[in-house]
Input
Amino acid sequence: MIPQHIQDILAQQGLKPLEFEPGSTPTSEMAAERIGVQTAQIAKSILLVGKDGIFRMVVLRGDRKMASGKFKKITGIKHRMATPEETLQQTGLRVGGVCPFGVNGIQIYIDGGLGEYDLIYPAAGTDASGVPMHMNDLVRITNGHVCDFAQND
Output
C-alpha cells in the first residue's frame, strides 16, 4: 500500500498513482513491462550518501546509469549508493519502491534525459506502483535540480 504521506502529496497535486500486485515493479524493466511503457520512461530514484555524510537522491531514466564522475562535478563531492538499511532509515521506503516525494531534507537531482518523454513514471513508495506525470511536475513537486549526470549511451 502506498504510504499515506505520499498519497497525500499526490492527491494535493492531482496525480493518481497506478497500483499493482505486490513486488511487480521493483526494477525499471519490470515497472515498464507492467505499466506498458518504455524502460526509459521509468523515473528511478536512487539514494546516495556523500563523503560529507549528506544524503542526496538522483532520479534518472530507467534505461540509464548514473555517471559518478559527472555527479561529483555537479556536487563537488564523491558519493556512494546508500545501503538498503540507510535508504529505509532516511526515506522510510524500501529499495524497489523509493520515490522522490515526501523525502524531507534530501536534495533531489533529476536527470534532464527524463524530459525526452511526455510522461514519466516514478514509483509511489512501493515496489508495486508508478505515477504518470510530466517532468515539469516532478521538478516542481520535488524542488529538484535538473542536470546531466547519466552515463552517455
User: Anything to note?
Assistant: DSSP finds five helices and eight strands in the chain. The first helix runs from residue 4 to 12. The mean pLDDT is 96. Helices lie at 4-12, 28-35, 68-75, 84-91, 135-142.
